[in-house]
Design brief:
Elements: H1 2-6, H2 11-28, E1 47-48, E2 59-60, E3 63-64, E4 69-70
Antiparallel strand pairs: 1-4, 2-3
């Protein structure tokens, strides 16, 4: 599909063809994991419910900093 797209002289048609090819790659492409990255996190004493996702993100829909709190409602030291 990419070879066919390269030969197209009409820019709009070529763009559409490339987008279709990229769509197929994104839908049918295989993701291979060869290794993993270590996830390191640090926090202050007393921080509760601070959970990262599998990528180590500290802000995400079901956890992270927005779902955490300090015990007793204050920053424990």
């Amino acid at each position: 599909m990419f070879k066919k797209s390269r030969g197209e002289t009409n820019k709009k048609k070529r763009r559409t063809m490339y987008r279709e090819a990229l769509k197929l790659i994104n839908e049918d492409g295989v993701i291979l994991f060869f290794s993993h990255l270590p996830i390191v996190k640090a926090s202050r004493k007393g921080l509760e419910n601070f959970v990262t996702n599998c990528q180590g993100d500290t802000r995400w829909a079901n956890g992270g900093a927005s779902h955490a709190w300090f015990e007793n409602g204050k920053d424990s030291k």
